[in-house]
Amino acid sequence: MLGVEDSQLLIGADRVSAKRIPIDEIITGISVEDYDQSFWKRQRIKYRHWRASLALGLSFEDGAIDKRKISPFLRLERLKKPTRYVLDFRYAFEDQKRANETSFFTTKDEFVGYILGEYHVNDQFFAFGRPAMDWDTPRDIDLRLYPAAGVGYRLFQKEQNFIHFPFGFGYVYENFDGFGTNSYFSLYFGIGGRYVFANGISLDADFLYMPSIAPFADDWLYRSFVDFTVPLFDPIALKLLLTNVNDDNPSPDVGNNKFTATMALSLEF
After folding, report:
1. By the number of CB atoms within 10 A of the CB, which of 32, 41, 146, 209 ranks highest?
2. Among candidates 238, 258, 237, which has minimal Cα distance to 246?
């Protein structure tokens, strides 16, 4: 093996006569024994361009205050050059009541979701589209839509690991409970990446900032998602989800910033 040139693996005695194999056509292999004994490995080979994570966090508390909480998480990703698609949905619901009360009241009802589509022009540059939406009842957000599109630069990519910087334009529509609606055209700045360690632990990070264009940054959205995944036994893993939300929420009782940490078991495919 002489190395990689123009996304092709060179095999031979010298570079002039070497056989050139497109890297995209190379499929990782495993032993027949491992293939026969593991249902999950067979499926991962069959659907080798896909990556999926399904997590569920549950919490119950009985005491002076009774609490019930559920936090499902779903992420699907398909990478087959020149395209990459991601579907990411996160939801959390919690209600509670005091021991001397008869009914529960909602303390958390929030959803964040987006669909990402990328087209890789080459190994460094790509175009993307990213429709997204969320709501957060306790923060008086009935609905927020914030689609964006643009181009990006991939600083580093090796197998599943990458770091990239998308940039573009977006539009934000917001409907607040008791505060009316708000909308504006925005810029879009992002940073995203993934790193999978040798022991299988993975780190995914995604940051975005959408300031209004005119006047600049008079309205804004900021989102950060950091996900740690620790394999326990195939296909179960322990997942830590860190989310930070910052925006110009008009409710003085709510404030702009919100940080959430969720621990859950996940099914990794």
Report:
1. 146
2. 258
Residue 115, in any domain of the structure: yes
Q: How far apart are CA 27 and CA 45, in angstroms?
A: 9
- Domain assignment of residue 187, yes or no: yes
First-to-last alpha carbon distance for the chain, in angstroms, is 31
Instruction: Let me know if residue 113 belongs to a domain.
Output: yes
The enclosing domain of 195 has a CATH number of 2.40.230
CB contact set of 41 (below 8 Å; sequence gap of 6+): 30, 34, 35
Residue 18 DSSP one-character state? -
Which of 133, 136, 84, 151 has its CA nearest to residue 106? 136
Residue 29's pLDDT band, with cuts at 50, 70 and 90, is: low
Spatial CB neighbours of 67, under 8 Å, sequence gap ≥ 6: 59, 60, 61, 94, 95, 96
Residue predicted with more confidence, 76 or 29: 76
- Does the model's pTM come out above 0.85? no
Q: Is residue 37 part of a domain?
A: no
Q: Which residue has the tokens 């990070």?
A: 205
Structure tokens at 36: 């026969």
